[in-house]
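Repro:
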Amino acid sequence: MDGLKEFSSATPLLLVGCGKMGSALLEGWLRAGLSQDAVIVVDPATRQTTNFDLPRSAMVREIAGLPDHLSPRMVLLAVKPQMMPDVLEDFAEREHLSAPVLTIAAGTRIRTIRDSLGDDVPVIRSMPNTPSAIGKGITAFYAGPEVSIEDAMLAQTLMETSGQTVWIEDEDLMDAVTGVSGSGPAYVFYMVEALRDAGIAQGLPPDVAAILARQMVVGAGALLAESTDTPETLRQNVTSPGGTTQAALDVLMAEDGLAELMKKAVAAATERGKQLSK
């Protein structure tokens, strides 16, 4: 992607945190053409970055170990919300590190970051999800009025290497985004577990039940991705009146069925995101 050319050895991308999500994003950027000398990674477990064949100078264990006159084009904070206060405190001590900040931490509000780094620091919030590791993710963004169009588009370019992107106009909705798409893959994986176990309960061998449940979700997801039909239409296409699918849907679509459980689950995740921001 042409936007990745904005990063260079003189104006690198500074990635703070290289855990599962950070490393997945880094892999996508390198695959999309980001130069290895155009990124610097800060992570206590810098051995993780050796998988990317980065120069040793690009692997730093802590913010204090960064070069004195570093001028990153953008800083991406990919640390867990619980770690954010310490990271922001370390950054606040490096006043010369002025650059737009892109954060993927759930619950960390823009106000919190700017209180530590300064009111003149442009901050963009984003929420990707784990399918980003294979280029099938979805990232939602929110940018305050202080963020330039150029910085917003650069952030979008970064995350488009791992899937689709959307923008929202109200930062308060980021907690709901987290509840739907950020945490959402875990809901699907748990559904596969539950479907596997339900098959076993009906007499299927465990290995057969596992394969059936897993591939069903893979296939249904692929069909949903490639079809122009709505989920409702696709569901109706599978459902014959009075048939086996209808019998199952009568249970799932009951008043206290899946829809109600999903509302409660997303509400719980949304509320937890709000708590993390306090």
